[in-house]
């Protein structure tokens, strides 16, 4: 256990008992779009000692609210638009480091205080050379402003109970680099991660092991070596070779871990198919948005993207389709049904606790149906069929009333046609999909064509295709949802012109 940096109260001592020690550790590096919860848990399974989340920007995090997700047994930090910006769980609490992008000491402190009780450490990104980070004075842009670096780190060290670290790149000259790291050390941080390349250099440039070694020889705090994936790290034993070449205390692995997280396994790399299936299981269990899951799997497949399985992955447009591509269709169905049952249980408990009576839905015709885009031609949807039928019958156009459950952010819609209401008992991941399901109930109850492939249906006026919702964010959608009743207060009603909230990973 590393020594504490300052005198603390008894309460702080309890919290600090979870403090990280950065000596002789294998560490998953922070990687944008990769370092979400499924990848972090997988890295821990394979032997990583510490895992970093992807860089999260202070301006985004400072708007978030901490929410305990009882369905997933996670802690979520949720933005005002309902996107989950950061998700963590008890399994990683003592080993996950929250990395932020910041250029302001007070904002950094506010974010650190927001998350510190749910993470093991706080890290400031001072090495990312990409424009999205540097344009706001964050990332590698901080390297040219030592005063700001000192203020941010000093403020964090004095203001929170968790160990504070930073990740930098080397400067053009060794003298300037050593001068900077000495100044950083004086702020009281617990460790420093060094990517052994300059700001303008990329992975194809050789990593400067000798500069990292000079830093390690100069400082008394642990130095974490980073940047060895391209030239040095292809297997587990290479990690120790890289550590010795840099004289670092620990090694942080990025792309080699992204390609195969079992790089941390002492017994050697596991077959990629096995690793990907394990990753997918975590992604489904923790409701990871399919676009993020798909991205990470593509990074693992690399040159195999043109294989039959790679093509199936490329074509997948949902978590279910990803699971089917990897032979995990049954696992997906079983897991989502379990999650839906848990949601229903919690929803019922919430209704009992609030004492709110369920809305009277007598007279509403209900069926357990869902809209599956694959079952319909590209230009046809059930809503279009229903609208066309109403026009031919000289009826008022259908009216959709859609609600969202705050508990899981799933949607249900009721459509009214000729004063009769129709509703699917299955909840959906978006407003659009819920409305399509309600239209299907109406059409089927009337014995009308709904436009499915191979179904004889009347001609439709040509109009713009209604695309199924393809939310880019997370968490994310359950393809199967539990039947539920419409309640008055536990829902957020959406007007007909509102878009469904984006949910982010």
UniProtKB/TrEMBL annotation:
Pfam families cross-referenced by the UniProt entry: dsrm, Dus
Family: Belongs to the Dus family. Dus2 subfamily.
InterPro entries: Aldolase_TIM, dsRBD_dom, DUS-like_FMN-bd, DUS2_DSRM, tRNA-DUS-like, tRNA_hU_synthase_CS
Listed EC numbers: 1.3.1.91
GO cellular component, one term: endoplasmic reticulum
Organism: Theropithecus gelada
Cofactor(s), names only, from the UniProt record: FMN
PROSITE patterns in the record: UPF0034 (PS01136)
PANTHER family hit by this protein: TRNA-DIHYDROURIDINE(20) SYNTHASE [NAD(P)+]-LIKE (PTHR45936)
Broad class of the protein's primary localization: cytoplasm
Entry keyword set: Cytoplasm, Endoplasmic reticulum, Flavoprotein, FMN, Oxidoreductase, Phosphoprotein, RNA-binding, tRNA processing
Subunit-level organization: Interacts with EPRS1. Interacts (via DRBM domain) with PRKRA and EIF2AK2/PKR (via DRBM 1 domain).
Gene that encodes it: DUS2
Record's function text: Catalyzes the NADPH-dependent synthesis of dihydrouridine, a modified base found in the D-loop of most tRNAs. Specifically modifies U20 in cytoplasmic tRNAs. Activity depends on the presence of guanosine at position 19 in the tRNA substrate. Negatively regulates the activation of EIF2AK2/PKR.
Subcellular location: Cytoplasm; Endoplasmic reticulum
GO molecular function: flavin adenine dinucleotide binding; tRNA binding; tRNA-dihydrouridine20 synthase activity
Domain DRBM: 382-447
Gene3D superfamilies (UniProt xref): 3.30.160.20, Aldolase class I (3.20.20.70)
The protein's name: tRNA-dihydrouridine(20) synthase [NAD(P)+]-like
